[in-house]
Amino acid sequence: QPDGGYPRLNAAMLASGQYATMIVSVVGKFAGPATGPSMDFVCCDGGRIAVSLEHVGDQPPNDGQPPEMVFELIGQVVDGQCIAMFVSRELSTDMDLGVYNKMISVQESPKFSQYFGEYNSTMVTN
Asked: Are 27 and 97 in contact, with CB atoms under 8 Å apart?
């Protein structure tokens, strides 16, 4: 994985096993309150993953947020259905997750690879 880059994924892509141990980004909504050291997260494709809160402290990222709040989570893939979250970002309460899911599917498609850099054009530049 190149420094400063990470793929944008949905739950199906995560389950593929192709991204094991990589740092990734997922977008979606928390499925409810924290249950111990983890939370359920519904990705933009409607698939559920587990999110480990081990690296983020005591307060869940969705604490005090409306249930319709969409988040971007960045973390390391632990297994095909779990990421260890490092960072969360509140995006919006009216984001169209279907459109976002289509966008990342296009970015992953070999047909359009000439338009997107490695890891979905998320390279950080200074």
From this structure: yes
d(CA 45, CA 12): 8
55-65 burial, b if ≥16 CB within 10 A, otherwise e? ebeeebbbeee
Are the beta carbons of 70 and 29 closer than 8 angstroms? Answer: yes
pTM: 0.86
- Burial per residue of 4-13, b for 16 or more beta-carbon CB atoms within 10 angstroms, e otherwise: ebbbbbbbeb
Q: Tell me how far CA of residue 108 lies from CA of 9, 66, 80, 94, 95, in angstroms.
A: 9, 31, 18, 24, 21
- Cβ atoms of 40 and 31 within 8 Å: the answer is yes
Q: What is the pLDDT of residues 39-86, one digit of tens each?
A: 999 999 999 999 999 888 777 888 888 889 999 999 999 987 899 999
Q: What is the pLDDT of residues 108-122, one digit of tens each?
A: 888 887 887 665 444
